[in-house]
Design a protein that fits this description.
Number of helices: 20
Strand order of the largest sheet: 1-2
Distance between the termini: 36 Å
Radius of gyration: 24 Å
CATH architecture: Up-down Bundle
Strand content: under 5%
Largest sheet: 2 strands, antiparallel
CATH class: Mainly Alpha
Helix content: over 70%
Number of strands: 2
Structural class: mainly alpha
Length: 457
């Protein structure tokens, strides 16, 4: 059974605020700024195959399913270690853990640039996917540097680094065109699509040096001295797994669409890659940049109320996106009896209406991602690394499983809109679970009002 989201006890709130009262304020802005920039870069590296996969598919002759697995394999490795990185951050401090991760990510990024076969690409894509775990580090790191009443906004600002998914959408097609396929300096610097991961490798080295040099050396380690069993104990609570499902909807689906939409625009609307990438950015921007707004709204109105609006607005947009192109047939008995006639109406989702509805979905995801993570320091103030790591892990795993699921559904039905039918079903289940918990909360809070539908004035 799912435990009720009762208001945290004052003692728990005091525990959450106590560390913030003892920290030096000077390091807050530096940590938030550099961790956000690093996360933006790492997110760009993590999801670069959303755009690079198009020329890679052409060069290596990939099938639909092979393309789906190439984009998903990086997401997998950026998901499965999130709990581990969250625990390491609580134990060793975000400065050390993030520096190491960013520096090591440079290695597979360089390797992707020189891959010569599909098997090599799959291996290097898996390794470069480690970049996705930067999220757990930043969430745990920033949460201990900000007081409770600022955590929603601070974590929202950090999470806006999701906009890194659009970096490759903007610079990728231009760099692929501008840098000759033969490369630069006699081929020592690769060209074409290979220049993008090479550039990211250089930026990773620069960013790692900046984090280590500029961030406060005296870090906060709330998990130091605690046993692994104690750190993992909160994961037994059902609400942690419910938050994880919410995060599948607002983050896992965001990751999946970020890598899937360029292909969707190219295949369904017959657009060139550059235009497809730019329109995909119209989804990525609100899904990323609205995260600080989502954190502020969750601070002001509460995460639960915000999640109702998020899931509701997404479901409305997904209904339209789920409708396949075709003809709606209306049988008119009088006409059929007279001459076998029937009325038909053609329905075709144009690219601009499609982009508008995807934009609405992106707005919901951007606000919802911050609202979900507002829950965590609220209810688990001493275990943000573990709980945030698991929620991030399971949410990101949704981003791993969804692209292959989209590919198999498309292959089985021939209907591209099955992508959004799948997302509609997952979102609907999340909303129903949220509503079920809220109703139980209200019943337990007011048992004397049960079954009294009409109250006397």
């Amino acid at each position: 059974m799912d435990s009720i989201d009762a208001i945290p006890a004052p003692a728990a709130c005091a525990v959450a605020e106590a560390p913030a009262k003892t920290v030096a304020k000077a390091g807050q802005k530096t940590i938030l700024t550099l961790s956000t920039l690093a996360f933006t870069l790492m997110f760009a590296v993590w999801l670069m195959f959303g755009v690079l996969g198009i020329p890679i598919r052409k060069e290596f002759g990939l099938t639909e399913v092979q393309f789906g697995w190439l984009t998903a394999i990086a997401i997998l490795n950026g998901s499965i270690w999130r709990l581990t990185f969250g625990l390491w951050t609580d134990r060793f401090g975000g400065r050390k853990v993030l520096t190491v991760l960013v520096a090591l990510t440079a290695i597979p990024s360089f390797l992707v640039a020189y891959a010569s076969s599909l098997s090599q690409l799959m291996i290097y894509a898996f390794l470069v996917g480690m970049a996705g775990n930067a999220f757990s580090i930043g969430i745990a790191w920033n949460s201990v540097w900000f007081p409770r009443h600022q955590q929603g906004f601070a974590l929202g600002v950090f999470g806006a680094g999701n906009v890194g998914a659009s970096v490759t959408k903007f610079i990728g097609p231009a760099l692929i065109t501008l840098v000759p396929a033969a490369g630069l300096l006699g081929g020592q610097i690769p060209g074409g699509w290979r220049f993008v991961p090479f550039l990211y490798g250089i930026l990773c080295i620069v960013m790692a040096a900046a984090i280590w040099t500029l961030c406060p050396a005296q870090d906060h380690t709330p998990g130091a001295g605690r046993s692994l069993r104690e750190l993992l104990r909160p994961l037994k609570q059902m609400r942690v797994w419910r938050f994880s499902l919410y995060y599948v909807v607002v983050f896992g689906a965001y990751v999946a669409l970020s890598v899937w939409l360029p292909k969707y625009y190219v295949d369904v609307f017959k657009m060139p890659l550059q235009q497809a990438a730019l329109l995909t950015a119209l989804f990525i921007f609100p899904a990323s940049l609205l995260r600080p707004l989502g954190g502020w709204l969750a601070d002001k109105f509460g995460a639960r109320r915000i999640m109702y609006w998020v899931f509701g607005s997404m479901l409305v947009a997904l209904i339209g996106l789920s409708a396949p192109n075709g003809h709606i047939v209306l049988y008119v008995p009088e006409k059929i009896a007279a001459g076998g006639q029937m009325e038909t109406m053609r329905f075709v989702m144009g690219p601009w209406l499609f982009t508008f509805l995807v934009f609405i979905v992106g707005c919901g995801m951007g606000i919802g991602k911050a609202a979900v993570y507002k829950y965590i320091p609220e209810y688990f103030p001493k275990d943000v690394g573990a709980v945030g790591g698991l929620v991030g892990l399971l949410g990101a795993l949704g981003g791993f499983f969804l692209p292959p699921l989209f590919a198999y559904a498309m292959q089985a039905t021939g209907i591209p809109q099955t992508t959004f039918i799948i997302l509609f079903l997952v979102t609907a289940v999340s909303l129903l679970w949220l509503h079920f918990v809220v109703q139980r909360l209200l019943r337990e809070a007011t048992p004397h009002l049960q079954n009294r539908f009409e109250m006397a004035k």
